[in-house]
Amino acid sequence: MPHRPQPSSYTPATAILALGDAFYDPVAPADFPRTILRFRNQRWAEAVGLGDLDAQAWLAHFGRFAPLPDNLPQPLALRYHGHQFRVYNPDIGDGRGFLFAQLRDAPGRLLDLGTKGSGQTPYSRFGDGRLTLKGGVREVLATEMLEALGVETSKTLSLIETGEALDRNDEPSPTRAAVLVRLQHSHIRIGTFQRLAHFGLEDEMRTLVDYCLREYYGEESGEDGSARLLAHVVGKTAALAASYIAAGFVHGVLNSDNIAITAESFDYGPWRWTPFWDGFFTAAYFDHAGLYSFGRQPEAIHWDVVQLARALTLVADADALTPSIEQFPALFQAALTASLFARLGIAAKGEESDARLLVAIETALAQKTVEIDRFFFDWRGGRRRGPSPADEAYRDELFVAVADLLRGYSPVPGATDHPYWSDAAPCSMHINEVEAIWSRIDEADDWSALEAKVAAVRRMGEALATS
Ligand code: AMP
Ligand code: MG
After folding, report:
1. Which of 181, 252, 391, 420 is such that its CA lies 20 to 30 A from the CA of 76?
2. What's the CA gap between 253 and 422, in Å, rounded?
3. What residues make up the catalytic site (predicted)?
4. Whose CA is closest to atom 6 on ligand 1?
5. Is residue 371 part of a domain?
6. Which atom of ligand 1 lies nearest, measured to the CA of 130?
């Protein structure tokens, strides 16, 4: 179950400093001409004790990056490498973001406040270090929708328009600019480990393994530390991949620098939701080979985790790492059942029967006669509810087979209690809707469509959270 926000007091924790200077570079934020608040995530601000900040203090901390009390004195650009579309790139790192602060929530989890679009760093290469406002709005929408659908994701804490004009070749330009603050358990990536392996930094690799085990998995260091860490990451990334599939989400750029060691989904660029169960559906216009298409995401994430294992061989025996890697497919299958059943609001019965239902659902949806969101909405609790525009499609034998199997399943308690389940249509996040929300902002500076959508998404999240 993904973490839900619960009120907490402000608890600064600069754990990252224990890693030492070799892991980051102190940097300065850009000096923006303006700071105009566009999105404030009050639910999650309260979960890290920042809910009481007044409007002025919010802009000072998340637009000007005035340090938070007893927190990092200066932002840190984190160092990392990574495979981008399977090609190793040693020239990346935090090029338009930095770690701004760390804190703990009520359950004691270490959380990072990271930025996107906060200015240039030693890793900007030819980039301007900036984020477009449209990119920021898209990240708000993606994170809210994923959170509601039960995907463990970074949260968008703040979006502030900065008054700059940017040139981009994938947006009509000049285009408006923004700076975003995200809240996430960890910004340490598979690429962080790859960089250490690339330079043969054994001591630093041991330090990083111990840090991740301690801070993210609550375990002590030891001889078998790398193997234990890898086992955790395999389990969590398999669950992440499964939750993407159940959500119908296509991240778009599953490079190894975009996979966090805590396996939270993050770094949203060209993402899309696929309307239909279409394995070839691709989000990024530059992903010509469809490497990160909807159906290939589990394989892509598995490949990234193999790169983590390869990096860990700097300090660990390969034989100790292989068994975890080999478990990924089975863990993914189990997690996919769990994710799909959670979305349907039904209780699992047993491996064999559950696998049969899973195949039946995938086969029926693959005909592309019923949209993913519509299917899960109509069959919530395992029974057809109310008339649906898809009723004709449900008469098809493949859907009849699904219905027959579903009859043997029980709904989880409260599965359909929420009034959302009596709406005429499910809440979706298809590209036409995203573009329409952006058009209102772009053409009329009208933010009401974004606000209404976030409210609708959170309401769906409440409806789904009953199971
Ligand atoms: P991404 O594809 O967003 O994961 O980014 C890959 C790399 O490019 C990272 O090192 C980013 O920091 C960097 N990058 C992306 N956009 C910019 C930009 N506008 N300015 C500077 N660096 C950027
Ligand atoms: Mg990235």
Report:
1. 252
2. 36
3. 257 (proton acceptor)
4. 92
5. yes
6. 19
**Which residues in the chain land under pLDDT 70?**
1, 467
Structural domain harbouring 200 = 192-336
Task: Classify residue 156: in a domain, yes or no.
Answer: yes
Q: Is residue 4 part of a domain?
A: no
* Separation of alpha carbons 35 and 223, rounded Å: 49
Cα-based angle 452, 455, 458 (whole degrees, multiple of 5): 150
Catalytically active residues are 257
Is 381 inside a domain boundary? yes
Q: Do 330 and 218 belong together in one domain?
A: yes
| Distance in Å, CA 257 to ligand 2 centroid | 6
Q: How many domains does the chain have?
A: 3
Tens of pLDDT, residues 340-398: 999 999 999 999 999 999 999 999 999 999 999 999 999 999 999 889 999 999 999 99
Residues 328 and 373 in one domain: no
For residue 366, how many C-alpha atoms fall within 13 Å in the half-sphere facing its CB?
Answer: 12
- Please tell me whether residues 129 and 232 are part of one structural domain: no
Query: Ligand 2 center to residue 384 CA distance, Å?
Result: 41
Which ligand 1 atom minimizes the distance to the CA of 91? Answer: 10
Q: Which two tokens stand for residue 229?
A: 């860490």
Chain segment 302-351, per-residue pLDDT in tens: 999 999 999 999 999 999 999 999 999 999 999 999 999 999 999 999 99
